[in-house]
Design goal:
By secondary structure, this protein is an alpha+beta fold. The protein has three helices and seven strands, in the order E-E-H-E-E-H-E-E-E-H. It has a five-stranded mixed sheet with strand order 2-1-7-3-5. A two-stranded antiparallel sheet has the order 4-6.
Length: 112
């Protein structure tokens, strides 16, 4: 079944991953539907915090409550959120910030 909703592009510079995500769909679900693995997935409903990300560019909207156990109000003001609880309204660049972030950045060498 094809999803006819408009799509935006989601980019994860840490992994080089980029994928289309339907507006109104969570960033995490858009990725999982395509079989991608750029954002770590746990419970997929906001309870575990594994999909914690930081929005670097773009606009998102909240699709459900975000647990303060995983993202404080101060962190949310800095762009942190849970990928399972937000959707994009325009193209987004994000970084993985959850407990699994080290898995994706291990061995990464930044600019000198």
């Amino acid at each position: 079944m094809y999803d006819f909703r408009p799509k935006v592009q989601v980019t994860i510079p840490q992994t080089g991953e980029s994928y289309p995500c339907a507006i109104g769909e969570s960033l995490l679900m858009g990725m999982l539907k395509l079989g991608r693995k750029g954002i770590p997935a746990g419970c997929v409903n906001g309870g575990c915090g594994v999909c914690r990300i930081r929005i670097l560019e773009g606009k998102i909207n909240q699709l459900g409550p975000i647990s303060r156990a995983h993202v404080s109000a101060a962190e949310e003001a800095q762009g942190y959120t849970l990928a399972c609880r937000v959707g994009a309204t325009q193209n987004v660049r994000l970084e993985v910030a959850g407990k699994m972030a080290r898995t994706f950045t291990k061995g990464f060498v930044g600019p000198a």
